[in-house]
Amino acid sequence: MYRAKTTIEQWRILQAVVDFGGYAHAANKLNKSQSSLNHAVAKLQDQLGVKLLEVKGRKAFLTEAGEVMLRRSRHLTQNVQDLEELAGNINQDWEPEITVAVDLAYPKKLLYPVLNAFYPESRGSRLRIIETVLTGTEEAITQGWADLAISPIMPKGFLGEPIAECSLYPVCHPEHELASLEGPIDPNELQQHLQLVIKDTSRTPSEKQGWLKSEQRWTVSTFETAVDLLLENIGFCWLPDFIVEHLIESKALHRLPIKGSSFRPLICYVVKPKPDSCGPGTNLLYQTLIKQSPFNTQFIEK
Question: Which intervals hold domain HTH lysR-type (predicted)?
Fold first, then answer.
């Protein structure tokens, strides 16, 4: 039977030294002495026979071998954390708090009946519903800070159940210059006009979703603010059908026919970022979301 030369604590210390930019800062964060961290990393390198870090000035830098080993070690320590959380959840009581990340693209009118059904069974659990957008929703899943996430984005390595669908429409005021154009609008024409975009809730947003080619863009935090600006004949915006359909029908807003993409369909999924760590309350809410979703109803009817 193989016997490990190294310990999980040694790998965690190495990760901290790299993540916090050196031994001094890592020691402060871990509440340990700097000498103990130096000793742990030195022993780790001796046990492996591989140099992992090089100290230049006051900062520690990874060697090429260190970069590979560090990347693999993060999977190791995360697996250990997940395993320990699973052990804690096997016989756990009902969790005191459940955090749900809900992307703004998900129709909230579908959420409220779910919460109404969940509440009598919630056993007093506090529910934190945090609205997210784009990369912010993705991070709720990949970083695991939410117990559940409702997302139109499915990060690599995760699974989810479809619970809703919607479409994004490009819209503007009926008196906007774009509304007067006939036939499908060339996307190049859009680039000359102000585009309203919804702020990504990630701490490190990544503009890799949607059409963002306008030379001038204004960023707002909510769909409601975007609609208010559109009603003042300011810019154009891609917005969900459940937000703008009634405004299009009443002719308060105009739906733009764009060449190659007059709408963008979205499927929203409910995802367990850390499925093995879910408590009974989280699992119940997850099942309730699936049970009451339009997708489940369509499946039953068929």
Answer: 6-63
Check: CB of residue 197 under 8 Å from CB of residue 225.
no
Distances (CA, A) of 163 to 20, 97, 287: 40, 23, 11
Distances (CA, A) of 76 to 41, 168, 266: 17, 40, 35
Residues 6+ positions from 56 with CB-CB distance below 8 Å: none
- Summarised one tens digit per residue, pLDDT across range 252-262 is 999 999 988 77
Task: List, in order of start, the domains of the chain with CATH numbers.
Answer: 8-90 (1.10.10.10), 97-164+267-301 (3.40.190.10), 165-265 (3.40.190.290)
pLDDT in tens, 114-156: 999 999 999 888 999 999 998 899 999 999 999 999 999 899 9
Cα–Cα distance, 133 to 240 (Å, whole number): 13
